[in-house]
Fold:
Amino acid sequence: MSQILEVDVPLHNSPYKVVVGAGLLSRSGVLIAGVAKPGRCAVVTDSNVAPLYADTVERSLQDVGFQPVRITVPAGEASKSLPQIATVCDAMIDAGLDRSALLVALGGGVVGDLAGFAAAIYYRGIPCVHIPTTIVSQVDSSIGGKTGVNAPGGKNLIGSFHQPRLVIADTDTLRSLPEREFNEGFAEVIKHAAIRDPGMLGALDDLQPLIARNVAIKAAIVAQDEFETKGLRALLNFGHTIGHGIEAAAGYGRLLHGEAISLGLAAACRLSIEKAGLSPAEAARITSALAHYKLPLRFPADIPVGDVLQALRKDKKFRAGAIRFVLLRALGDAFVSDEITESDILATIESLR
Structure:
């Protein structure tokens, strides 16, 4: 077995570890037993991941005394919905799980967000463990406690903060990803490099330490601003304001999350050049890294910009009608600006066509 790396998420009230390594699924029961008493538990997964990994995780849980119940949701962004939350909670009720139960989220970002939210509200909150199986979920969405589902009006508008007890990132699961889904995760990696660690842009190939490095970046930011009240955690939204708007305007499922974020990063780079003094050469380092992973840099011609702006107006990053937009002065030097207007955003999106 390759080296196992552990990264602390040092929150004041609910610290936990992210364990990164190959072959961890078969050890997941032992790892989980270290943070939760064996008993009844739900394994929430999706229709793509369940055939690949659910049996291994459930056997490992059973080996240390857990009694897992599998709950499988349809794969895809459409499952991040209130009706699917109700389905998961109803399945847990039908299985007789109570407030002493544990929820294990096995899958990518959709499963993590959905299952984490179910854990947050079931019996007013039960513990959860994340086993992320995609790059985007291993480096980003499984860390920090943000859970939730989409509403017709926008992405992630319904949710809560609910920190996991443990995150288990088995890098072997990344081998099963189709190329497009593998590549999309690098949008979040490149985002972390842009806001905190530009040296990472030249070291994107060694997955295990790369994932641990990304986890450490997010953990440090989350630890300083767990509930996004101080402005620091907002830096993690670099590229996401426009990216989420594009994702919603395109219709969930047309663009993968990382593909929409890639377009958002390209737009944020252009705005950073115009409004914050980012050098074109540094912006090019970001867009070149995105292009290396075949991530889109051109805005689709058939998506109306007005639809993107309409989605943006409902985004959580709007406060009292003002846009809180993350810009770069230089690589590694991100800040939140309130000087970006809707006209700026419209012109920037149009320039990406």
